[in-house]
Amino acid sequence: MRAVVKDGVGVFHPQGFLDGNSSNALLSIEDIDSTIKSNADMVLVSLKKVVFFNRNGLDTFIKMFQKVRSANHIVVGFCDYDKKKYDTIMKFYKDEIMFSLFKTQEIAMLFASNFKKESKNVLLYSEDKSQRAAMAIELHDNGHNPIVAQSKEEFDEKAKNEAAYDIIIEDTFLGQMGQKVAARVTGNAIIYTLSSFLDAEIGNTFNIAYHNNSLNVGFRLFIFDAYKVVSMNVHALNFFSKLASSAAEYNATICFVGMTFEKTPIAFKETLEDSGIMFFEQMDDILGDKELLKELGASSAAVTKNKRVLNKQIVTETPNFIDATVATIEMMTNSEAKKEAAKVDKITIAEKDGKIASSIGFYGDIDGMVILVFPIGIAKKACELLIGEETDDKELILDTLAELVNIVGGKVKTLLSDEDISVDITLPRTYPDIESLLEIAQDKKGVQVDLNFNNDKFLFFLTR
Amino acid sequence: MITKEKIDAYIEKIPPAPDALKQTVALLKQEELSKAAKAAEQDPALSSYLKQLINRPIYGFKHEVENISQIFGILGVSRSQQTVYSYMTSLLSPKEWKLFKLNQNSFYNLQAELNAKWQKILKHLDINDKEIESAIALLPASIIVSEALFCEKIDDVNLLRSVDEIDLNTILQRLCKMDLFDIAARIAEKWEMDEKITQIVQAASGVKPSEDETIDKLGKWMHLLLFYTLSQPSNIEAGLNDFIDFQIDYVMDIYDDFAQLMEIQ
Fold it and tell me: pTM here?
């Protein structure tokens, strides 16, 4: 079957039942080749007439997506589905969604780059904060006026007034975003969730690579949400003791919240406390106490044991990183970037005042981290776009910055995967001032690129 | 433009022509199984067809069934009648398919699959009516007629298909003012089937629902069954999947029941 290409968007219309066999019969190698050659800006598979699909059925189309995207670097995904189909796809692919999901073709068109005929008022909501931000950015860039609901309640309330919006977006997902992880981030703390029985399995289920990279990026406070833990055995005890001692090398703090010791020997608590882990009864005890949060998360100069050096592969991939960054910032600020200077050395920041920074780590086939130093003006502009109003609330600006860096990370991941380099990204880390950034970054050697956005100096630093 | 007369001419070609076949159909309608078997034996082509069909894997018989009386005995009145209609359809089947990539074998498989699954559905719905059981034979028959009509205007068909995302059934409608289901209804008339069969087939189009609740329900099941069958790889490769426009909303209320019956996971 061939995609019907209209206004630069190619759409496949399979119908009936999609399983592994039928999908393979529907989509031949020639069909995929002709899709690549069609030069569409977006390739979609409409699920409107599909009454049944299973994972194998979708996989055939997803393989096509991968080929089309790595050849043409365009948006690919499914469209025209109901809530049930959306939930099913989300369940099938969970954290590995590399394609987009648009509830309707009309919504997809808003994200197509050539669709700039008229500005639309768009109400949007996604449970995922990063998704909300990414959608708002893309829509804004395409000349629309996105109104972002921050909660489901707000969305439902606003959606009642249908006439106020040209299009309402929900159950939609932009696939170029980074992967989801079993952790939430609050301020500069990472929260992991634990449940049921903690035994030797924890060594397999806990994503240690992610954790180590978060340490490397500069996260210093790790909170284990242990409300749902029933008990812990000696293997898990050893695991957490080791985790605590490796955290100590970075001056990082590990906390347990909500852990009860009804079915776990109280002696374990003492052992864990001896290795440096802190216990709190309520999440609010930490998160509600800004002073404590600051104290625990403050990154005093890290004693980085294994100092990693820049390697050739990272330097080779630098253009990808810069492209992803520049594209995102240009979108956010409606300004054009000029490259001023590039060098390989330790980070140098001439003017330290009035700047904030953010970093994000990546690991996998290659590893390292990207640091972005923003004049507060650019950060505020970006913030305006994402929340729809001006603000001087520094915390909010830092939060927005984290989202922005998350988007950069997601883009980098996508660009690299097109070259068959697979990486995962950590959560973004923010720094309210340059001093706190230098505490972790001053000794690192990396590629520094100075960029100029409408006379605002902006710094990009890629290191390991 | 293909005229109505031309379509009728195609349908006219559909038997029953040979006496033995005519007799078999008449006797089956009177539920005279053994007499019908004797009549069928007179027609070597029909006998051979019955043996071939009954021994296809979809019917699931362990041992080869050869005797016609035995075959009718196993099938019972309704399924025997349905099978004889399938044979009548096969008589019309072209030697070489041009638009749809089918051949005798794959067409028989399509027939056998539709027959067996329709049987299963009617059993599930607790409907015991030999006319309704035979109704499913109309779909393959109308696919054959459509193929013949398309071949008349193959260039127009290809042109229309290249410019827009347009299903063959719509093209058929534009070329002949008749769609697949209208053709099926004409064949039903030709085969002197009950009026309700015409209505079921029309409802199965998914765009002409019936006011009669039972007929509408059967139309839904037939529409979904047609799609289920046309989603099989061999039928997709044959180009049958995009023959008609699937009306997903029409069948949604019976989908779960259907999926359970067909064990779709």
Answer: 0.61
